[in-house]
User: Fold N-acetylglucosamine-6-phosphate deacetylase from Streptomyces tropicalis.
Amino acid sequence: MAPRKVLAGARVVLPTGIAHGGRVAVEGPRIAAAGPAPADPGTPGTTDTPAGPVLDVSGHWLVPGFVDLHNHGGGGASFTSGTVDEVLHGIRTHRRHGTTTTVASTVTGEMDLLVRRAGMLSELAEQGDLAGIHFEGPFISPCRKGAHSEALLRDPDPAAVRKLVEAARGHARMMTLAAELPGGLDSVRLLADHGVIAAIGHTDATYEQTVEAIDAGATVATHLFNAMPALGHRAPGPIAALLEDERVTVELINDGTHLHPAALELAFRHAGAGRVAFITDAMDAAGFGDGRYLLGPLEVEVREGVARLVEGGSIAGSTLTLDRAFRRAVAVDRLPVPDVVAALSANPARLLGIDDRVGSLEPGKDADLVLLDDDFVLKGVMRRGEWVVDPQLG
Assistant:
């Protein structure tokens, strides 16, 4: 039997609320128990079972490992162009910042390149390093292309969409597309039929066109507010349609650059905490530093942590890590901790259909957890029962 680890004394964020002075017990790669500290550890029916060594984490928070739906790379490595070793380095960079479950996002490229990348990334998914693949482009609007090469954009032809899905060998989790383009609605339906999330983003759609896309099966707003028409009082556009529909989960990039705090508050207030997923939309520079990078074929300059295209100055992804998104959400945006945990863990896990394994601290689930101090600074990361970042309790 695998040795048991017990972490005790923390504020443990559970699906049912916060257990003050709680504990989490880990056996092998799984959570054995999670909840309030029992009055008598040997009493049948308590949340504990006979013990192992106890690590006192009083004064800290224990939360589930973070789940990132939308991530292009980190640590100097790109998920679109890096070697296997480089992609693994990028994944591990984000793990050290609390992201224990990562979906690898690609950027617009030639179809043959994307097919090859899908094959390589699917191998990493098969060995458990990735939770799947998100194709962002090439089926997006040239009017809202952001940091995607306009020369490589194309309409969402269902045959091309199917080609990418099949290349991912069952590991395609999400595809961002502009459903107003020719073939868009048919492609949304095809994705839904194949169990792939159709995400509306990099779109110039009207309110009415967005409603049609949601009715066809789209269930995610790719980085809501960014790369889409602004909310208008006569032409409400996609933002209103995506916020109002209970079937849609909205991605938010909470780095202080992509969104004004009032926009974030609007999304939380209108969609509710159960329909928000914090993402990084990270590119190579996340966890690495300022400098010049490539995002697909486009050159990016990162200065003071903000990534922009060298030509044109468009924001080009982010350098965000999810531990920073957590801290900002609590310290700056003043969101309740359980709501932030839902947005970083439970909601994306549920959306991906892996909430039976990850996304919350419950017995039987993977022992993926993040230890934070009283100021919400990351102090430890565990993935599948092994410390990725050893606890720093001094």
